[in-house]
Design brief:
Blueprint lengths: L11 H14 L6 H9 L11 H4 L6 E5 L5 E5 L2 H11 L6 E5 L4 H10 L4 E6 L2 H13 L6 E4 L12 E6 L8 H5 L1 E13 L2 E10 L2 E9 L15 E6 L2 E5 L8 H9 L3 E9 L2 H11 L3 E6 L1 H6 L10 E5 L4 E8 L6 E8 L3 H18 L6 E7 L9 E4 L3 E7 L1
Parallel strand pairs: 3-4, 3-6, 4-5, 6-7
Antiparallel strand pairs: 1-2, 7-8, 8-9, 9-17, 10-11, 11-13, 12-16, 13-14, 14-15, 15-16, 17-19, 18-19
Helix pairs in contact: 2-5, 9-11
The structure holds S-adenosylmethionine (SAM).
S-adenosylmethionine (SAM) binds next to strand 2, strand 3, helix 5 and strand 4.
Length: 402
């Protein structure tokens, strides 16, 4: 936790000023406009009952509502992520903005950015959440923000077109009303889940579709209602080891893949640098011919069966009876890390070859930040597309690297 000096603790104004300084230091906030909004809106008024230190911590969410299993279904998002997304959104005075997924705080920040001439609508699927957001907004002096109870999958047509739509819940796809609800040069900022990893992507409207301007890793609670991510599957290979995919073409035979793990491991080093993990991951997950995500518990990693790269999930190449995933080791010559592959099963050699080739190709051609351009093309894919494509319900995600 980022906690300011003791002398400042308990004074919301001082905590807020300290939060803004830290958000600027960490490049979550890069503009004066966004800094001013964060400095103005009393964040703690949107987290009644929560400790002040939690409300003003940069990287913590504040729980709002949990489901029957105790999992968060609504939180006040972490300030760091809100700063990043508001910078991606590039909101100007006088704009009309729709926020999908409410809480009140982010909508108040947006109201500061659009000013008196602009208009902010925030929609949530949950009556408790939207009622709470309404109370907090009124209490903090943001009565002009419009709150709507609805499934945001359909947008909020009454009020469209919007200059900006900001989605603050993880979306598996982009329904037509989000694109159609934008002005001709509007921007959609959405935490889009592609191959089980979510990135906040700033998309500009590009004719019928969307074209990315920036992307950043992000974590959000999943969407409920019509847009809930029904395609995701997770299979347990054994206690503490699971594979996850959302690609219908990928078969996950838990028994055969679990057997593979008991076979001796093949380790291949690529000779290529391991850097910019989020950029590399995007490249790998979209270019592996049959991709899943391997997750392992700490116990299993400590037992030596699975590498630490799987603790947070790692792109994995699977066949019917074999798996290969990324690892790394220190590179004594350069001081950084070298990437490599661990493979198990009868096809370990072939999978490791394919994986190592991708590691080398990325390091050779794309080892920079922001080299991917992501397009969203609504409707059925015009075949064949020259890019790497990921089919979605309402369209296709198409990615190129430069
Ligand atoms: C991370 S919270 C939003 C945080 C908020 N923007 C803030 O100011 O901190 C995500 C919200 O999305 C809402 N949500 C989930 N599915 C939704 C849907 N289909 N339409 C609208 N809201 C949805 C949840 O009820 C939850 O309140």
């Amino acid at each position: 936790m980022t906690v300011p000096d003791d002398s400042e603790v308990r004074d919301p104004g001082a905590l807020r000023a300290s939060m803004v300084r830290a958000l600027r230091d960490q490049d979550a906030i890069t503009s004066e406009r966004v800094a001013a909004a964060f400095a103005t809106v009393p964040r703690h008024r949107f987290a009644p009952g929560a400790p002040l230190e939690l409300a003003y911590d940069l990287h913590s969410t504040v729980p709002v509502k949990k489901d029957e299993h105790g999992l968060d279904i609504s939180v006040m998002s972490a300030a760091h992520l809100q700063g990043v997304m508001l910078e991606q959104a590039d909101i100007r005075a006088g704009m009309k903005v729709l926020e999908i997924g409410s809480g009140g705080y982010n909508a108040a920040l947006v109201q500061e950015l659009v000013g008196g001439e602009g208009a902010v609508t925030t929609v949530d699927i949950d009556r408790d959440v939207i009622d709470r957001a309404r109370r907090c907004l009124d209490d903090a002096g943001y009565g002009q923000v419009r709150t709507v109870l609805a499934d945001g999958e359909s947008g909020v047509p009454d009020g469209a077109p919007y200059d900006r739509i900001i989605v603050t819940v993880a979306a598996w796809d982009i329904p037509a009303p989000w694109i159609g609800g934008l002005t001709g040069n509007g921007r959609l900022v959405v935490p889009l889940t592609v191959r089980c990893t979510t990135r906040s992507i700033a998309f500009d409207r590009d004719g019928e579709g969307l074209l990315s301007r920036s992307y950043r890793l992000a974590r959000f609670v999943p969407m409920q209602g019509e847009g809930a991510p029904k395609e995701e599957r997770k299979v347990l290979l054994r206690d503490g080891v699971a594979l996850q995919t959302d690609d219908v073409r990928v078969r996950l035979d838990a028994e055969a893949l679990n057997r593979a793990l008991d076979e001796p491991r093949l380790v291949r080093w690529s000779g290529a640098a391991y850097e910019l993990p989020d950029e590399l991951e995007l490249y790998l997950t979209l270019n592996l011919s049959s991709a899943a995500r391997l997750h392992s518990s700490k116990d299993v990693v400590e037992s030596g069966l699975v590498e630490a790269s799987a603790l947070l999930g790692v792109p994995t190449l699977v066949s019917e009876d074999s798996i290969a995933y990324r690892t790394r080791r220190e590179n004594e010559n350069t001081g950084g890390f070298e990437s490599g592959v661990v493979a198990h099963g009868p096809q370990a050699e072939a999978l490791a070859d394919q994986y190592v080739e991708l590691l080398r190709r990325w390091a050779r051609n794309h080892r920079r930040r922001g080299t991917a351009t992501i397009r969203y093309l609504p409707g059925p894919a015009a075949s064949p597309l020259p890019q790497v494509t990921v089919p979605k319900r309402h369209g296709v995600v198409a990615v190129t690297w430069h």
